[in-house]
Design goal:
The chain is α/β, with parallel strands linked by helices. It is 45% helix and 19% strand. The protein has one domain: Rossmann fold, CATH 3.40.50. It has a 5-stranded parallel β-sheet with strand order 2-1-3-4-5, sandwiched between helices. Helix 1 runs parallel beside helix 5 and helix 5 crosses helix 6.
Length: 143
């Protein structure tokens, strides 16, 4: 099982690091790419068609990246809005208000950690190892 982390710009790498830190903790295999929905739509389309189980798309401003990826795959896409302008509210609304039929899960502004945890939860539906690790993680949180 594998996750693709896509950021719309290299300037979003601080959010991608939050994602990869959690994926590393859970032993989830992943790749990281930079691909703008506006500057390189062909690359985004090609990435969306590759063999990943979950996509995490990090984007600010118009935050088109998660929706564009979702338009090219039937696999889960998690959008992470970035606080580039307007405190990230613009990006959050762009992701959360996608039209019906092509859903994208959305986490809080700059919340790469929750995006990674949601990806692990999705993977845990089919694999006992991430499920066990999530249960242990939650137990540690309660202590």
């Amino acid at each position: 099982m594998k996750v693709l982390v896509v950021m719309g710009s290299k300037s979003d790498s601080h959010i991608a690091e939050k994602v990869t830190t959690v994926l590393d903790e859970f032993g989830v295999e992943y790749d990281v790419e930079v691909a703008s929905a506006h500057r390189n739509p062909k690359k985004v389309e090609e990435l969306a068609k590759e063999n990943y189980d979950v996509f995490i798309a990090i984007a600010g401003l118009s935050a088109a990246l998660p929706g564009v990826i979702a338009s090219h795959t039937v696999k889960p896409v998690i959008g992470v809005p970035v606080s580039a302008k307007l405190g990230g509210i613009d990006a959050l609304l762009s992701i959360a208000q996608l039209p019906p039929g092509v859903p994208v899960a959305t986490v809080g502004i700059d919340n790469g950690k929750n995006a990674a945890l949601l990806a692990v939860e999705i993977l845990a539906l089919r694999d006992e190892d991430p499920r066990r690790k999530l249960e242990e993680y939650r137990e540690r949180m309660r202590a």
